[in-house]
From TrEMBL:
Its cofactor is Ca(2+). Residues 434-443 have a biased composition (Polar residues). This is Sulfatase N-terminal domain-containing protein. It comes from the Eukaryota. Residues 413-443 are annotated as: Disordered. Residues 1-17 form the signal peptide. Keywords: Calcium, Glycoprotein, Hydrolase, Metal-binding, Signal. It comes from Patella caerulea (Rayed Mediterranean limpet). Residues 413-425 have a biased composition (Basic and acidic residues). GO terms for molecular function: metal ion binding; sulfuric ester hydrolase activity.
Length: 513
């Protein structure tokens, strides 16, 4: 009778382990390219990420949104941008915008389930009002910056008032917060080191009887190009100075992630931690990221903008060390985490994400067969093809099975015709400033119908538009876009407010409404 008794005890042990709430660590890299992670064959060294991914599950058919605020909004709410009003551009510093109050965040859900919730790094989901801030959106604590980008050591971000007709001088301000308090003490401290240290402090101070949710959106490797010399010097083989700095920024982040995971181990939390690593969007080609061999980059709906480098690590994975090719999306984390945490999905509006745990952990088929990449009614281009379905002049993209349809893509954008080869002679560029805060971009064109169809399984590089050969597929996907368009809420994209500017607030970016 000894054997069955032992088995019985084992089964109790495993049931308890699996029924407890795992710690959840979500690490987001910023503007991190498909070809900038070691295991995709990059020249950039990421030994920590490579090892973690090798021990876990690499997600190779996983999508994010093409720019910062949208991906973060979907990660935190589980809902598409067309359902939160954030379908156009990012949230700019001076805009009165944030996550809508009808969409509780993952932090609120996990907090409700008993988790301690902390965020360290970049917020970029609005700060005009206290109600938009991370500490009002379910995080017990926040350390980091509220805007979209800034200098890594000075913690200063600038607005060039490009949206103002009056005054085009640059206005700069400090953006570094310890909860609500401005932190002036870290000038000169490189943010990858700073955020790593703050994350480690949280891990060390954590009460082990409680489950931990740590959201760690690093600033790296977003522009500006800035890294301590030590990391840049690791890449004397790379000739282009900006790519060399970018590579250093990535390797420094990789080291930070090693330090954070070591802290989890030291604190005895690691064995029951689920780590998700994801980029927020594809690499920015003008800022020295590479998405090769994918087409396009940050800001485009081509694969280089939306197919994200990502993996999952954790003892709870039933199947480990494999590549998962099931269709997944950043909005899927929300129900996946809430269910892992034994939380409740009640009280949310209909989610666009799917619980993917079974898919990730067992390799089961994904529940997701469709993915709306976006519909942005404020970007319009081309000629209308059909009167009785989705207006293809509107910028949109959708994936149904292996098919991907893009509409309204402005064909003059150089990024849309890039397959990872960076144009020569580009300077630093100004951070995230390529798209103006205009209200509507309408470009006229002659003859272009502005519909593109790709079979992503056969042609992941989007080199062969097959829309002419597959009119029925085109029509079906346009009808699906029409369906999604019918569920869309109005775009929330208010004009910038001069009262936001730091010169009105003692040189800091702060909530002003
Ligand atoms: C433009 O804005 C800057 C910064 O706020 C200010 O110093 C300058 O005086 C303004 N210029 C004009 C012409 O209003
Ligand atoms: C990681 O930890 C080592 C050892 O404490 C330290 O020298 C290094 O600067 C840390 N790296 C980062 C990115 O925090
Ligand atoms: C989306 O739906 C709205 C409201 O029915 C309609 O006015 C608009 O033309 C539709 N957009 C597209 C791109 O079809």
């Amino acid at each position: 009778m000894l054997l069955p008794a032992t088995l019985f005890l084992w089964s109790i042990y495993w049931t308890q382990a699996a029924s407890s709430q795992p710690h959840i660590l979500v690490i987001v890299a910023d503007d991190y390219g498909w070809n900038d992670i070691g295991y995709h064959g990059s020249e950039i060294k990421t030994p920590t990420l490579d090892q973690l991914a090798k021990e876990g599950v690499k997600l190779e058919n996983y999508y994010v949104q093409p720019i910062c605020s949208p991906t973060r909004s979907q990660l935190l709410t589980g809902r598409y941008q067309i359902h939160t009003g954030l379908q156009h551009s990012i949230i700019w510093w001076s805009q009165d915008s944030g996550l809508p109050s009808d969409s509780p965040t993952i932090a609120e859900k996990l907090k409700h389930a008993g988790y301690k919730t902390h965020a360290v790094g970049k917020w970029h989901l609005g700060f005009a009002r206290v109600g938009y801030l991370p500490t009002s959106k379910g995080f017990d604590t926040f350390y980091g910056f509220w805007g979209g980008s800034e200098s890594y050591s000075g913690h200063i971000s600038c607005d060039d008032l490009h949206w103002s007709h009056v005054n085009h001088s640059r206005v700069c301000g400090l953006d570094l917060r310890d909860n609500l308090a401005i932190d002036r003490s870290q000038t000169g401290h490189y943010s990858t080191h700073l955020f790593t240290e703050k994350a480690i402090d949280i891990v060390h101070q954590h009460d082990k009887t409680k489950p931990l949710f740590l959201y760690l959106p690093y600033q790296a490797p977003h522009a500006p190009m800035e890294v301590p010399k030590k990391y840049e010097d690791m890449y004397s083989n790379i000739k282009d100075v900006n790519r060399r700095i970018y590579a250093g920024m990535v390797t420094c982040m990789d080291e930070g992630i090693k330090n954070v995971t070591n802290a989890f181990k030291k604190a005895g939390l690691w064995d029951d931690t689920i780590l998700v690593f994801t980029t927020d969007n594809g690499g920015s080609i003008k800022n020295h990221g590479s998405n090769w061999p994918l087409r396009g980059g940050k800001g485009t709906l081509f694969e280089g903008g939306v197919r994200g480098a990502a993996f999952v690590h954790g003892n709870r994975l039933a199947k480990k060390g494999y590549v998962n090719k099931e269709l997944m999306h950043v909005s899927d984390w929300y129900p996946t985490f809430v269910n892992l945490a034994k939380g409740s999905l009640q009280g949310t509006k209909p989610l666009d994400g799917f619980d993917q745990w079974n898919t990730i952990s067992h390799g089961a088929k994904s529940h997701r067969t469709e993915l709306l990449h976006n519909i942005d009614p404020l970007q319009v281009w081309g000629n209308r093809a059909f009167d009785d379905t989705f207006d293809n002049r509107v910028s949109a993209a959708i994936r149904v099975g292996d098919w991907k349809l893009l509409t309204g893509q402005y064909e003059g954008r150089p990024e849309s015709k890039e397959w990872g080869k960076r144009p020569e002679g580009q300077g630093h560029g100004v951070v995230g400033r390529s798209s103006g805060q205009t209200n509507k971009v309408v470009r006229t064109s002659s003859g272009q119908k502005s519909i593109m169809l790709y079979n992503i399984r056969d042609d992941p590089e989007e080199r062969h538009d097959v829309s002419a050969q597959h009119p029925t597929v085109v029509r079906h996907l346009l009808d699906r876009l029409k369906h999604y368009n019918q569920t869309m809420v109005p775009v929330h994209y208010p004009p910038g407010d001069v009262n936001a500017l730091p010169n009105k607030h003692g040189g800091v970016w702060t909530h002003w409404l």
